[in-house]
Automatic annotation (TrEMBL):
Its cofactor is Mg(2+); Mn(2+). SUPFAM superfamilies: BRCT domain, DNA ligase/mRNA capping enzyme, catalytic domain, Nucleic acid-binding proteins, RuvA domain 2-like. It holds the Pfam family DNA_ligase_aden. DNA ligase that catalyzes the formation of phosphodiester linkages between 5'-phosphoryl and 3'-hydroxyl groups in double-stranded DNA using NAD as a coenzyme and as the energy source for the reaction. It is essential for DNA replication and repair of damaged DNA. Keywords: DNA damage, DNA repair, DNA replication, Ligase, Magnesium, Manganese, Metal-binding, NAD, Zinc. NAD(+) binds at residues 37-41, 86-87, 117, 140, 177, 293, 317. This is DNA ligase. It catalyses: NAD(+) + (deoxyribonucleotide)n-3'-hydroxyl + 5'-phospho-(deoxyribonucleotide)m = (deoxyribonucleotide)n+m + AMP + beta-nicotinamide D-nucleotide. HAMAP family: DNA_ligase_A. Residues 57-76 are annotated as: Disordered. Its EC number is 6.5.1.2. Belongs to the NAD-dependent DNA ligase family. LigA subfamily.
C-alpha cells in the first residue's frame, strides 16, 4: 500500500527531483543519457502528479518548472551587476600577435598563457543565482541592460535550476551562449516543414527568436543548449585562473564547450585556430571565430578594459564563406547619424547557409576602390559569418557600356544636401533632427540616459509614436498628451502619466547634455562638455564659425566642420527653437571658461564602490564640472581614488601605489570647498 501522507509525498518528490536532475545533467550537459525518453517521462509525470496533489511541494528549481509558463506581456529590462562587454576582433595573425605583444609589454613578461575556446554563434545570456538557485536570466542587450527572460531560460535543459553545490555563492552571475546545435536545427526545420511552417534561416536566428518568445511554453519546445563561458559579479571568491573558473562551472552543472583548452602564448593560440578551421565543418554548432582570454584572472584588472571591450581577451574571426552573384542595383541607406551608406542590391544567393540579398559597400571610396558597378558579377562573403560584403568583382563578366557609380547629391529621405566632412570617408545628411530616416534613432538617442534621460520611452514605444506620426521630431515629445499615449500598446493611465512627468522633468537640463542629445556627428559626451564649457551659451556656439570651433581644446577641423554644418542646416535650427519654445532650458554661463582655470584642473580621479549621495555618472559630472578628469584605472598618475561602499580592487591598487583615498565625506568636502 502506497503511503500518501504529506511527509511521504515530500520524500518521494525530493527523490524524484534528484533523479530527474541527474538524468537532465547526463542528457543535456554530458550527452550520456542513462535512461530512455519514456522512462524519463514516467518519472517526470509522477513528480507532476505529486506536485499537483501537494502544491506546497513545488519549488522554483523543480524539473517540472522547465515546461514553460503562460505568455508574458513584455520583457522587462534587467541591469547586469557587472557589464557584459563585447570583444575586440583580430582578423589576421598580425592582429593576434599585436594583441599578445601589448599584453606582454603591459605585464612585463616573456609569455602569457591563454584559454582558447570556439566563439559560438548564438545568443549571449546572463544567469543570476542566489544561494545556488536560478533567480534571473537576461539577454546581453547593450552590455549593461538586457531583456529579462527568466521563464524562457528555465525551460532549457542545460541551464541548472540549482547549482550542484552544498556551499554555493551567495550571489553570482554566470555568462553563456545559447545555441541550437546543427543536428537539432535540422530536425527542428523538418518538423516546421511538416507542419507547413516556414523553416528558420539559420541556427543563430532560431536560438535568438526562441529566447524572445513571450510564451515560454513555445521556448520549451525548441532544442536550445547553453554553453557557459564565464562569470560576472560574484559575492564569493573564485578560482585564480579562467580555466579554473570553467572547471568550477562544470562542477556546478554547466555544460562547457569540449574544445576549450589552455594554450601557451600566441603560438598556442595560432595552433588552436588552425585546428578549429580544419574541424569547422565537423562541429555540431555554428561558430564565427575563436576567443582567447588571459588565463590569469589576477591580471585582468591590471590590463583593464575600454568602454566596449576587455583588454585581456580578443575574438579571432574565422575566414568568411563566399559565393558569387550579381549586383542588380546600388541604393543608399541613411543611418541614425546621417551616414549615407551605399548598398548593393543582389540577386539572392546562399552564403554559408544564409540567403543574402543585400551587401554593404561602406562608402564611396570603397565603391571606387573595388570598382563595383550595377550589373557586375561579384564575390560576396559574410564577414565574421554575420555582415555580408562584396569581396571583389569578376571583371570578365562585366557587361559592355558599364559606368562607375556616383554618390547621390541629396538625401533620399529628406532632400537635404549630402556633404562629405574633411578627412572622412563617409558622406552625411546633417539634417539629423529633421530627416525621417534618422527620426527613430535621433529620438532614441535624445531620450537616452546620458542625454535627456527620459525614463519610460523605449524603442518599441518610439516606434509606435513615429509610425503613427504623433512624433516627427524630438520637439514633438513635449506636445504629447495622455490621449496620445493611452492609444499606444501597453500604455495605461499610470505609465502614461509617469512618462509625461519624465518628459516634463527633462526640460531642466545642462547645456552639455542638450548638445549631446542633439546627436551631432562627431560629438560625444566629452566633446559636448568641452563645447558647453568653452562657449557657455547655445547661441554663441551656433554663431561660431569653423575657425573658432577649431580653437576649442580636443576639437579638430573635422568636428568643427560637423558642428558648424549641423547648426547651419535650417531644419535643425527650427527643431532647436521648437525645443526651447517648449521649455527646454539650462543655466548658461556669462562668459567663456577655460578648463585650465577650473579648481580641479589637472587632477585625475578614479571612482570605486557605491556612493550614497551620488550615482557614478553624477559624481563624474561634478568632478568634470570643476575641471577634474575621471579615469577607469588606478596608476601612479592618479591624484585621488574616491571610495564608496563595496569597493573593488581599485582601492587595494591605490593603497599599493600610495594614491590618496577619499571616502564619501571627504569627497563631498572637496566638492563644497571648490
Amino acid at each position: 500500500m502506497t503511503d500518501s501522507s504529506p511527509l511521504a509525498a515530500q520524500a518521494r518528490a525530493s527523490a524524484l527531483r534528484e533523479q530527474l536532475e541527474h538524468h537532465n545533467h547526463q542528457y543535456y550537459v554530458l550527452d550520456q543519457p542513462e535512461v530512455s525518453d519514456s522512462e524519463y517521462d514516467a518519472l517526470l509525470h509522477e513528480l507532476q502528479a505529486l506536485e499537483s496533489e501537494h502544491p506546497e511541494l513545488i519549488t522554483p528549481s523543480s524539473p517540472t518548472q522547465r515546461v514553460g509558463a503562460p505568455p508574458a506581456s513584455e520583457f522587462p529590462a534587467s541591469e547586469h551587476l557587472e557589464p557584459m562587454r563585447s570583444l575586440a576582433n583580430a582578423f589576421t595573425q598580425d592582429d593576434l600577435s599585436e594583441f599578445d605583444q601589448r599584453i606582454r609589454d603591459q605585464l612585463d613578461v616573456a609569455a602569457v598563457d591563454y584559454v582558447a575556446e570556439p566563439k559560438l554563434d548564438g545568443l549571449s545570456v546572463n544567469l543570476r543565482y542566489e544561494n545556488g538557485v536560478l533567480v534571473l536570466a537576461a539577454t546581453r542587450g547593450d552590455g549593461e541592460v538586457g531583456e529579462e527572460v527568466t521563464a524562457n531560460a528555465r525551460t532549457i535543459g542545460s541551464v541548472p535550476l540549482q547549482l550542484r553545490s552544498e556551499n554555493p555563492p551567495k550571489s553570482i552571475e554566470i555568462r553563456g551562449e545559447i545555441v541550437i546545435r546543427l543536428k537539432d536545427f535540422e530536425r527542428l526545420n523538418q518538423q516546421r516543414l511538416a507542419a507547413n511552417e516556414r523553416p528558420f534561416a539559420n541556427p543563430r536566428n532560431a536560438a535568438a527568436g526562441s529566447m524572445r518568445q513571450l510564451d515560454s511554453r513555445l521556448t520549451a519546445k525548441r532544442p536550445l543548449t547553453l554553453f557557459a563561458f564565464g562569470v560576472g559579479a560574484s559575492t564569493d571568491p573564485l578560482p585564480e585562473t579562467h580555466y579554473g573558473v570553467l572547471d568550477q562551472l562544470r562542477a556546478w552543472g554547466f555544460r562547457i564547450n569540449e574544445r576549450v583548452e589552455c594554450v601557451a602564448g600566441v603560438s598556442g593560440c595560432e595552433s588552436f585556430y588552425e585546428r578549429l578551421i580544419r574541424d569547422r565543418d565537423d562541429l555540431d554548432y555554428e561558430i564565427d571565430g575563436a576567443v582567447y582570454k588571459v588565463n590569469d584572472r589576477g591580471v585582468w584588472n591590471t590590463l583593464g578594459s575600454t568602454a566596449r571591450a576587455p583588454r585581456w581577451a580578443i575574438a579571432h574571426k574565422l575566414p568568411a564563406r563566399e559565393a558569387t552573384t550579381v549586383i542588380e542595383s546600388i541604393s543608399v541607406s541613411v543611418g541614425r547619424t546621417g551616414v549615407i551608406t551605399p548598398v548593393a542590391e543582389l540577386t539572392p544567393v546562399s552564403v554559408g547557409g544564409v540567403v543574402v540579398s543585400r551587401a554593404t559597400l561602406h562608402n564611396l571610396d570603397e565603391v571606387h576602390r573595388k570598382d563595383v558597378r550595377p550589373n557586375d558579377t561579384v564575390m560576396v562573403r559574410r564577414a565574421g559569418d554575420v555582415i555580408p560584403e562584396i569581396v571583389g568583382v569578376v571583371e570578365s563578366k562585366r557587361p559592355p557600356g558599364s559606368e562607375p557609380w556616383q554618390m547621390v547629391s541629396h538625401c533620399p529621405a529628406c532632400g537635404s544636401e549630402i556633404v562629405r566632412l574633411d578627412d572622412e570617408a563617409a558622406h552625411r545628411c546633417l539634417a539629423g533632427l529633421f530627416c525621417p530616416a534618422q527620426r527613430k534613432g535621433a529620438i532614441e538617442h535624445y531620450v537616452s540616459r546620458k542625454a535627456m534621460d527620459i525614463d519610460g520611452l523605449g524603442e518599441k514605444l518610439i516606434d509606435q509614436l513615429v509610425d503613427s506620426e504623433r512624433i516627427k521630431t524630438v520637439s514633438d515629445l513635449y506636445q504629447l498628451s495622455l490621449v496620445d499615449l493611452r492609444g499606444m500598446d501597453r500604455m495605461g493611465e499610470k505609465s502614461s502619466q509617469n512618462l509625461l512627468n519624465a518628459i516634463e522633468k527633462s526640460k531642466t537640463t545642462t547645456l552639455a547634455r542638450f548638445l549631446y542629445a542633439l546627436g551631432i556627428s562627431q560629438v560625444g559626451e566629452v566633446t559636448a562638455k568641452s563645447l558647453a564649457q568653452q562657449f557657455g551659451s547655445l547661441d554663441r556656439l551656433m554663431a561660431a564659425d569653423e575657425e573658432t570651433l577649431s580653437e576649442v581644446r580636443d576639437i579638430g577641423p573635422v568636428v568643427a566642420q560637423s558642428v558648424h554644418g549641423f547648426f547651419a542646416e535650417p531644419h535643425n535650427r527650427e527643431v532647436i527653437e521648437s525645443l526651447r519654445a517648449a521649455g527646454v532650458h539650462w543655466t548658461e554661463a556669462e562668459g567663456l571658461s577655460a578648463a585650465e582655470d577650473l579648481p580641479l584642473a589637472g587632477k585625475t580621479f578614479v571612482l570605486t564602490g557605491s556612493l550614497q549621495t551620488y550615482t557614478r555618472d553624477e559624481a563624474q559630472a561634478r568632478l568634470e564640472a570643476l575641471g577634474g578628469k575621471v579615469t577607469s584605472s588606478v596608476s601612479k598618475k592618479t591624484d585621488y581614488v574616491v571610495v564608496g561602499d563595496s569597493p573593488g580592487s581599485k582601492q587595494k591598487k591605490a593603497e599599493e601605489l600610495g594614491v590618496p583615498l577619499l571616502d564619501e565625506a571627504a569627497f563631498e568636502a572637496l566638492l563644497v570647498a571648490h
